[in-house]
């Protein structure tokens, strides 16, 4: 009889990481962040448990996209009322709420369940280069993506 693997309790301690989004490509950055949030970078990864770490993203306003995505990529939201659909381009949303771009990209890469909702709460995104989580002693994490920009 096979049993479900459960990692030992002492391996479930959460670490805090700081990621700088300056000149990083959005999708590649978001996929790396999603892997850390889910815990896929650890040997104790278990699909049905929260084994991931906390991630703080700084400089969200400096994230890059390639091609024509700056003017053609649309973000939609709906108020729930008839005719309540609002659309916004990447450039307008980046000028207004740059944190939402990274949050939207990472949330799409997490599981679509209650586990995904709890994993999403471990993501902290800030537009500037400062954050209020110094007490957690976060470690700097460098993500090696292809630096991008408009060609």
Automatic annotation (TrEMBL):
Keywords: Ribonucleoprotein, Ribosomal protein
GO biological process entries: negative regulation of translation; translation
GO molecular function: mRNA binding; structural constituent of ribosome
Pfam families on file: Ribosomal_L13
GO cellular component: cytosolic large ribosomal subunit
Residue ranges, annotated region (Disordered): 130-151
Domain of life: Bacteria
UniProt keyword annotation of Ribosomal protein present: yes
Protein family membership: Belongs to the universal ribosomal protein uL13 family.
Purpose of the protein: This protein is one of the early assembly proteins of the 50S ribosomal subunit, although it is not seen to bind rRNA by itself. It is important during the early stages of 50S assembly.
Complex formation: Part of the 50S ribosomal subunit.
Name assigned to this protein: Large ribosomal subunit protein uL13
Gene name in the database record: rplM
């Amino acid at each position: 009889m096979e049993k479900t693997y459960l990692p030992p309790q002492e391996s479930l301690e959460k670490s805090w990481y700081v990621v700088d989004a300056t000149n990083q490509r959005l999708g590649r950055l978001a996929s790396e962040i999603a892997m850390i949030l889910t815990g896929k970078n650890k040997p104790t990864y278990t699909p049905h448990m929260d084994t991931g770490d906390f991630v703080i993203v700084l400089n969200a306003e400096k994230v890059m996209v390639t091609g024509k995505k700056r003017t053609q990529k649309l973000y939609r939201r709906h108020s729930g009322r008839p005719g309540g659909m609002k659309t916004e381009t990447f450039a307008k949303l980046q000028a207004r709420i740059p944190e939402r771009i990274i949050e939207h990209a990472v949330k799409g890469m997490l599981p679509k369940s209650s586990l995904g909702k709890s994993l999403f709460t471990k993501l902290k995104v800030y537009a500037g280069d400062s954050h209020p989580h110094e007490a957690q002693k976060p470690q700097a994490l460098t993500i090696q993506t292809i630096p991008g920009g408009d060609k």
